[in-house]
Design a protein that fits this description.
eleven-stranded mixed β-sheet, 13 helices, 19 strands, globular
Length: 461
């Protein structure tokens, strides 16, 4: 098949250029097979030691903090490795606002005159954020992407329908689309007519293919398929991968039934890359990319690890970006760390990824409510085409509803959610004709306006 030719041509081209991606891919695959194997532990220790030493020696921000004082003189190399690895907790936690305010301070001196690549978030609800990647970081990212695609049966070069907002910055040329076998679908143009045309196009396409898209776009497809009794389970779709937000349970099951294939959610961002993804073998947990990142879950109140099983801030150390090292980078997302043990192999996972802190809803006593509680509950109301749930103050909430017909279950909806939020919750219902898309093409289902501040769109393939 032609997709196998593409795959072979890619690896042949990489071989001609020195086989860098292949070496990265082999390491990624071996580490991801068992996160606690001798190989995995040894490689991660080496990666972490190298990036911390590089940051201390070449990045102005860390030199100004005196970070290279963490390595005393006069000790042997093996001792340095131990100190460097354990010294991660001595590095400060940083975020995009700090990096944006001091971009030159975070750039490595050794890459000032070398070729780098810009990775820019769209700034859908804030201002754009640009990170520089060196060429080796790009190759590692390519290996990461290929690894995670393969976990759902999708080999590089297989066609995939890519549902996102396409603009001048991210639009791919016709030649690149052909090489990568991408079919771009603009979510800004999605309505019943365009969804029907898309599903007809997928059905008529006899090649194996996958679907990659925003969760909100996949929600729209599920609604259309259910209302029009569409079955795509025999039409050659290999996998469906949701990005931007994790799918709620009912949506995921509807996609699995409708397309007859694995359906997973991907956790990634533009400034780092592939952080974690559900796989065919781990359909409910997010397999952490231990090969390329060190991930911590820290408390909401302090830069300290949370107890096992507790939700906290997802903080990432990128092990491969030397142009602009991101050490203990607060992604702005929340998650729960876990562990999966099967057939004597251990994998570290994210049991939950809750999305950005501004999207977490709190009850009237200040306790967080999972977005999945809201999403799973709203499937009881099929007469709604769209909804958006907003927290406006500590005890005031609003449902924006776009009903398919007159909605007569408002009191039932309010009483149900008072059970989640508290009997003293004040819940208002507003009726709208459309929940608007953000400039990124995403549609927020849950929004917290209490003490919120702008954040950037950080989804990535």
């Amino acid at each position: 098949m032609f997709f196998n030719v593409r795959n072979s041509l890619f690896w042949f081209s990489d071989w001609l250029k020195g086989g860098h991606v292949q070496r990265h891919y082999s390491a990624v695959k071996k580490i991801q097979e068992d996160h606690t194997s001798d190989f995995a532990l040894s490689e991660k220790k080496k990666y972490l030691t190298t990036i911390l030493r590089h940051a201390q020696e070449t990045v102005p921000y860390y030199r100004d903090l005196g970070m290279n004082d963490a390595v005393p003189d006069g000790i042997d190399e093996n001792a340095v490795d131990v100190i460097q690895e354990t010294a991660l907790e001595d590095f400060p936690v940083v975020n995009k606002y700090l990096i944006k305010q001091n971009p030159d301070s975070f750039r490595s001196d050794t890459y000032l005159d070398k070729k780098t690549l810009k990775a820019t978030t769209s700034g859908s609800t804030g201002t754009p954020f640009t990170v520089l990647h060196d060429l080796d970081k790009k190759k590692r990212h390519q290996a990461d992407v290929r690894f995670y695609w393969k976990t759902v049966g999708h080999f590089w070069g297989t066609k995939f329908y890519y549902l996102r907002s396409w603009n001048q910055q991210n639009r791919k040329s016709k030649n690149v689309q052909k090489i990568q076998n991408i079919v771009p679908i603009d979510v800004f143009k999605m309505n019943d007519g365009t969804i029907g045309d898309l599903l007809h196009r997928i059905k008529a396409d006899k090649d194996p293919k996958s679907i990659l898209g925003y969760s909100s776009a996949l929600d729209c497809i599920v609604k259309y398929m259910e209302m029009n009794s569409v079955d795509m389970s025999q039409d050659g779709v290999i996998s469906v991968v949701a990005m931007s937000e994790a799918l709620d349970g009912p949506t995921k099951k509807a996609l699995q039934d409708g397309f007859g294939c694995p359906v997973v959610s991907r956790y990634a961002n533009i400034e780092n890359g592939m952080l974690a993804q559900q796989t065919a073998g781990l359909p409910d947990d997010f397999l952490i990319n231990q090969a390329s990142y060190h991930i911590e879950i820290l408390s909401m109140q302090a830069d300290l690890p949370v107890e096992e099983g507790k939700m906290g801030r997802i903080v990432v150390t990128d092990l491969f970006n030397r142009a602009l090292p991101m050490i203990r980078y607060d992604t702005g997302d929340l998650g729960i760390l876990g562990k999966s043990e099967t057939d004597g192999k251990t994998h570290f996972v994210l049991k939950k990824v809750e999305g950005r802190k501004m999207d977490i809803i709190y009850d009237t006593h200040g306790e967080p409510i999972s977005s999945f509680t809201i999403g799973n509950s709203m499937w009881k109301y099929p007469e709604l085409a769209q909804y958006q749930f907003i927290q406006r103050t500590e005890k005031e909430y609003e449902f924006k509803l776009n009903p398919l017909e007159k909605f007569q279950r408002g009191n039932e909806l309010i009483e149900e959610f008072k059970g989640y939020l508290g009997s003293d919750a004040r819940i208002k219902i507003s009726y709208v004709e459309e929940i608007p898309l953000l400039s990124s093409g995403k549609r927020k289902k849950v929004l917290n306006l209490v003490n919120s501040k702008p954040v950037e769109d950080t989804s990535v393939t």
